[in-house]
Design goal:
Elements: E1 2-6, H1 11-27, E2 32-38, H2 43-49, E3 54-57, H3 70-91, E4 95-98, H4 104-113, E5 117-122, H5 129-134, E6 140-143, E7 157-159, H6 164-170, E8 187-191, H7 198-207, E9 217-221, H8 227-231, E10 239-242, H9 249-252, E11 257-260, H10 264-273, E12 277-279, H11 289-298, E13 304-305, H12 315-324, H13 327-339, H14 345-356
Parallel strand pairs: 1-2, 1-4, 2-3, 4-5, 5-6, 6-7, 8-9, 8-11, 9-10, 11-12, 12-13
Helix pairs in contact: 1-14, 3-4, 6-10
Length: about 350
């Protein structure tokens, strides 16, 4: 299979795209890929490092505050259509895939106008503007949450789950002793994503002493920018602090309770691994989509949620203490997460790609 893939801006788009690429490679080892991304975002480094042919276009999102910058954005959009048409025609793919981010707009539209088959994937409960707009240019649309189907044409939309979930299931778990933790005590994992959250980290620093003498252990992954602030403080013996950990799902498989943001890829891993979680959605994302993502789990009683504005006093520790030794509630959360699972998500997407390219 010859495949053009486009996704950009954040890991939440890029890693699902890579999971789809990995599944196609597994099924058809002779497949060839071209990845089209932006010239100045994460994908420009991640994709070439994976040995995947990469081409970039200059693209920017619209700026609501500095309107004059949008003139450049419009100019780049027109320029990008011409570039995308040329790239796609030269590569001559069987299918063109968009996995989120504004860079996918000229790629998918150009492909459809040239007569190629197209597929997009939506990771969030509420679709972004790009995917909503692109829905009319697609032959098939995969969504991570059943609640997203209503935003797209029903006849070509299907529940695929998030392909990152399949990678999470297949990864080998780390042992607690490798992390310098007890093999017998329960583990609370606290992480606000790869970059961390300055506001939540400030709150956690104030809580450090309150974790002292708890029966469970706490692993806090701060993000590199906040790590130095943490280690200036006295760290209780049952708390371990790391700046970053590559392959977080290895730890999630050993976690009894997780405290996390509600990004789409993270939720797919929480669901796939059935990790009881207290979600703290980021209030700083477009359309408050992390809060909406979290509601899919909250409404199924598969997770709990504390909004960041309510992180005051010792509310987080009180919630942790309430849940961590309640084996009945932990078991119920796991059972409810299981009802949200989409098994073999990347395989489902691969099968759909094969169907539309017959």
């Amino acid at each position: 299979m010859r495949v053009v893939v486009s996704a950009g801006g954040t890991g939440g788009h890029i890693y699902p795209a890579l999971a789809i690429i990995d599944k196609i490679k597994e099924k058809e080892p002779d497949s060839e890929f071209l990845y089209i991304g932006t010239h100045n975002r994460m994908e420009k480094d991640i994709i070439p490092n994976r040995g995947i042919p990469f081409k970039s276009i200059e693209m920017y999102g619209f700026n609501k505050k500095k309107v004059f910058k949008n003139f450049k954005t419009v100019a780049c959009i027109f320029k990008s259509f011409k570039a995308c048409k040329q790239m796609i025609k030269e590569f001559n793919p069987d299918v063109v895939i968009g996995v989120g981010g504004y860079v996918t707009v000229p790629v998918i539209i150009s492909a459809k106008r040239l007569g190629y088959k197209t597929f997009i994937h939506e990771q969030n409960s509420i679709p972004g503007k790009a995917n909503r707009y692109l829905s009319k240019y697609c032959d098939a649309i995969g969504v991570s949450f059943a609640s997203s189907i209503k935003y797209f044409p029903k006849e070509k939309t299907f529940l695929s789950g998030n392909p990152c979930s399949e990678n999470a299931v297949n990864v080998k778990a780390v042992t607690k002793t490798e992390l310098g933790l007890s093999a017998t005590k329960k583990l609370v994992l606290i992480t606000m994503g790869s970059l961390g959250s300055a506001s939540v980290n400030r709150y956690l620093i104030e809580l450090l002493n309150k974790f002292k003498n708890k029966k469970y252990e706490v692993l806090i992954i701060t993000g590199k920018s906040s790590y130095d602030q943490f280690i200036k403080n006295e760290i209780p013996s049952n708390v371990k602090v790391l700046p970053f950990y590559e392959g977080l799902t290895k730890i999630m498989k050993r976690t009894d309770l997780m405290i996390s943001r509600a990004g789409a890829s993270t939720l797919s891993e929480i669901i796939a691994l059935e990790v009881p979680t207290i979600l703290i959605p980021s209030p700083f994302v477009a359309n408050n989509h992390q809060y909406i993502n979290a509601l899919d789990l909250i409404n199924k009683k598969a997770a709990l949620m504390i909004e960041e504005k309510n992180l005051k006093g010792d509310i987080l520790i009180r919630e942790i203490d309430k849940i961590i030794d309640d084996d009945k509630q932990l078991r119920e959360m796991k059972d409810n997460l299981r009802t949200l699972k989409v098994e073999n998500s990347a395989l489902i997407i691969y099968d759909k790609l094969r169907e539309i390219t017959k």
